[in-house]
Amino acid sequence: MKGIIIASFGSIYQDAVEKSIGSIEKKVRSMYSDMEVRRVFLSDALVEKWNEKYNEKISSFTEAMQDFARLGIDEVYIQPVTLVADQCYQQMRKQALKFLHSNEYGFNQVNIGKPLLTSLGVKNYADDYEATLESIVRSLILLVGFFMGSLQDVNYEFSIAVLEGMFPAFLYACIFLIPVYRRRKLYKLIYNRALRICGSKRKVFLYILLGLHGKLLGINIAHKNKFKWAVIILAYIIFVGWSIQSEMPFILKLLVILIATYRFVVAINS
Hints:
Elements: E1 2-8, H1 14-31, E2 36-41, H2 44-53, E3 59-60, H3 61-70, E4 75-80, H4 87-101, E5 109-112, H5 128-150, H6 160-182, H7 184-198, H8 201-210, H9 213-216, H10 226-245, H11 250-268
Parallel strand pairs: 1-2, 1-4, 2-3, 4-5
Helix pairs in contact: 5-6, 5-11, 10-11
């Protein structure tokens, strides 16, 4: 027999859970009607608070696995509904492996899915944490460029003209910074991981600004042959040379060269 566990961190707000996790659970039940489906919270504290507050009880991960064992289910699929591999997710993985290797429960197969964002710590594989850091830096560079461009050829005395010149920069700030604010918890997790690896706040910020994201997250730089090095260096020289010779405004030239240099450093350290 087969069973599915939908694992989330948890919540004490029933309406929010039913609209999010509940809708996912219904979809899974409709697609896999021949399999047992369980909803679990990975936070034991939230399981306890939920069961105190509501009549409809919810299980912890351990309780769900023990229930599957009693039903004779020997093949389990665990799908986390989490953003990153936090402590609760790591703890769940350890518990799942203990159940799998224990002769007491009789599980033949336990399959564990990944969170939305993952980092294997290996080059040549998609690294969501590194991509997130790059998107933050690119957004900040573009934001500075647009802000400087909006003030170009504008009277710097305080006047309506200055406000009109700054208004586009304000719009771009909203576009770039609102997503950054909404993902602030994710950035904090990435920052804490980088801080554990580097051991210094100064190093973390320096590596971010220099595009050394692989080193920041403890990922080894992939080996490059002579052809790859030639392509990276030649592409950078041609692009910067073209930018300098072009008739673009100085601010735009500066922005383009800054972005190209940043990408060049990232490419070297990838």
